[in-house]
Amino acid sequence: MTRLLLITDESSAPNLQTALSSAADFMVRQLPRVSEARGAMLAGAFDLGLFAPKRIDAEFEAELAATRALAPGMPLLVLAPAGTGADIQQRTMAAGADLVLFQPIDPAALAAVINRYSGSRPPVPAPPDPIPYQPGPLPSRAAALSSALEVLRDFSQVLGYSLDSRQLTQHFILKLREVVGIARIAIFLEPGPAGALSPAAPSDHLPCAAAVGLPADLVESFALSRKSGLGRQLTLNPQILRAPSASLPPMLDDKIVREFAVLGGRIAIPINDRERTLGVAVLGGRITGGDFTEEELLLVYHLLEELGLAVRNTWLHHQLVGSHRLFASVLDGLTVGALVAGPGGRVLYTNRALVRFLRGDGAATADLSDLPGPVAARLREVIDLGVNLEPYFHEPPGGAGPVYRVTIIPLRAPADRPPQTAMLLLEDFTRIRAVQRAEIESSNLRLISLIARRFAHEIRNSLVPLTTHEQLFDAEINDPDFRESLKTALARETQRIQRFTDQMLLLDRSDQPASELAPLDEILRNSFEKSRAFAGGDAELRIKSELPPVMLRCNRASLAHAFQEIFLNGLQSAGEHRQVTVELNAAPTADGRAELIIDVRDSGAGFTPESVPRATEPFFTTRNTGVGLGLTIARRVIEAHQGRLEVHSRSAPANSDLTIRLPLPR
Questions:
Q1: What pLDDT was estimated at residue 29?
Q2: For residue 651, how many C-alpha atoms fall within 13 Å in the half-sphere facing its CB?
Q3: pTM > 0.70
Q4: What percent of the chain is modeled with pLDDT above 70?
């Protein structure tokens, strides 16, 4: 990974930092002035400097020369504005630039140039060997105990910052420095989850979380990465790592050596939470100049492990707090009233909607005593006994008061036993119920009006020929033709009224049990003959089938009436040469049962696309006679036999008008 110092502002090179980060594996630190990175540059924190000025003038040349003096070994590139002349290039090179490029430039090409120049830095010299540690005389037992207690007391002060990972880490290293005597310490940790809904996935970026003995701008500018250097090495091999020295030849890659040199570190120790590496601690030498013993490093390793556990717990705490705030914010924004109560009926939370429902807009809170008595009793049952209740409606006796839809949700872990915490949700259905009642009443009135109109029309159609004959009865009774006409009118109209009565009875009793096996062919032919006799005139029934004789388990009378209604519907719209065609087929259903498929087509024009959706609706008819119940009754009877009635409009002359699907007996 290449650490790049970018000196620019957004107006001179917009989105340059984003383009560089996406074009190659760069860690880019963008600043408007070099002076803000003075400490980091003195420490050698950057592999390359890139300037993208608005203009190249004497002030910029002076800043470039100062940068060269500050970091003589760091490559400096200048990205000059478009239209800059050759003389400007010469002056910029003279001021200390290694290369001058001109805008616009492709980010991938710029990244390639940066990679080539960033590998040209001279190697970092190894630091001198530390002074061997010379232990003094061992203290007495009492003195050792007193010293241990003082250390324990000092570290216990860190506990006050246990809910803030940055403060905790900063005070931890201050105490560690005080106790162990370390000259400089830098703690690099992966960022914690950004919020309650952010996944806690490991990050490759390890910014500096706390440091002592390092310049502030270096701490702000420098970071480790899991992809290279110390971050990668200690993530893959979580062991204590020593920097190379004069007596210890470098066995590490150049990135690690360079990071040790930039930070002035001699020891790198992984920070883990006993599951994975969260970061890296880089330690300098002792304040006294001595080296660390193995026992001290092992102690520091375990202390940093405890720090890792504490940091992870702070992340979990912040996620929990964020989740709680998010949950409370969501509940408070709902129009549904919400109340959370614990054992003993103690109210833990109420949202604004519930307070408004129970106590009005001006109240601040509510408790169980404000709930309707039956609702509070049900809530206590859930809390005290652990019962599970389905949502229900609470309506006050006599309808005087609000109507609530009540949902009570137990909030318990699988192993918890009552008493438990529960959440009550109240939805105000008062207006909805009032609208529903008004709509039902209005719908009932419309239905009664439609029934009355259709019934009156049908009965009046039957009465017209009868009243006509009644008016002529005294004068024409001796005429044989009159008597024959009267006889025909009585037979036809009583048949019409009888059919109307049968329709009403079938609507009431369409779900009679299928109690007998009956031959389908006989039912179809008998039903057609009755329909033809009712409609009058000639008509033909054609049955096409390659199936063996079909037996159906059915209620014979009701199924026969259903086919009568279907055939009559076809005959009344079949035109002059009336013919009804029935085709029989069988097919398996999705669950493996055998299904009889009956396709019906008449010689008329069929159903229009507009009438198909309404054809089986009660009282829907396109003729001037009839009540519009024929196909409604047929559908009800067929569905009572576990079948389906489908209505089609014809896309071709041979298409069927109706399809009846009925289960075949096993």
A1: 84
A2: 2
A3: no
A4: 88
